[in-house]
User: What shape does this take?
Amino acid sequence: MSDDEPDAGPRLRSVILGGIASAALTGRADPAPLDRPWPRGLRWTRAVGIGRLPFGLLVNALLALVTLLMVSAAYSNLFGELHRPVRPPHAPPQPGAWEVSPPSAATLLLIALAVCLPLLLLDRHPLGAWRFSFVSMAVVDVRGWLSVPFVPAGSLTMIAALFAVAVRCERRTTAGVALITAAGVWIKGGPDVGPGGTVLVLLPLLAGYLVRSRRTSRQRLAAEAKRHRDAEAVLKERQRIARELHDVVAHHMSMIAIQAEAAPYRVAELPDETRGDLAEIRATALDALTEMRRILGVLRSEDGADTAPQPGLDRLDELVAGARGTGLTVEAEVSDGLADLPPGVQLTAYRIVQEALSNAMRHAPGSRVALSAVRERGILALRVVNGPPGRRPTGSPPGSGHGIVGMRERAAMLGGGLAAGATPEGGFAVEADLPVRGSA
Assistant: This one.
């Protein structure tokens, strides 16, 4: 015997008791709204006008009609059995038969309503319909004038409720319904009715369970197919964007790099400062091409995973050198211990500093910039402040203006914050606080 076998009994009891509690008290059925779509096989009814109504509304209207017919049939059955001779005139009364006076017509109607009204709840509240039907079948006793202990119309209602429960409820609840119903059949019907009644209980439950399993499988397959179509559409769109970037942006950046490299050879007497500027332009264009190729690789990959090395704070010196090459006077203060920061924090910090310096190049050329990146008490504090422009600013290229929004979103993704705004001296300041997990 294994160590797990002693726990099988309590676990089984827990499952059984949980299913019974779910069926009797806590269970809920899958919702069935009135405005749900028509089944595929009935959509032809739109041609005759019926299909334009909400399908759930029509189902509940049909259930109301069936309930009315079932109540009438149950009343007629009870009334007919009540007035049918069940024993010879001088024979002794049967056990359980009424001896004083027969039930009144109102009592018969009340019984018919009690066993048939659960049909009204079948679509919206199948578990409630079963509970209603079970209680009414348990309370109503017709053994005095019927040959069976259950009203036939009530048995049909119970079968319909069992099927609806199996279709709309989870397995645990369905198992609890099966146990309670079978126990009720045996308690009230005894050994004469119990075996056949149990079969009548299990058949609709099995049929409903098969319907639910088939529907769940179809929904799962449909959801997987939709996810596949969505992923394929996203991949196609990324590939289209990658082609456009390659054909337009990458081509122009390549031309800039080539022209910047060829310019010194076309002009014999070119100042050294101009040669340095052209070399910086070429280097910047090549860096942009490298970043472009990385982005194109991400866009073209199926899962969008970025496998290329991401820039970090170890490349801040390159950013500062590039900014100084454009005429900015950059004073950088970078604290020690930034190399072991998480890659996500390093990438976010790098991009924020990159965007802040780019803004200073565009809007405040020739200005003095103070850059600081300090790690303190679990926070990486970034500060990029530029003074007034040293020369006339150039206009922003079309489509710009979202840099601050992007920086703020990057900081928010790490749980940090970013503030950007003009300074009293006429410059601009960008300040960001990025939490560093695991930092003291």
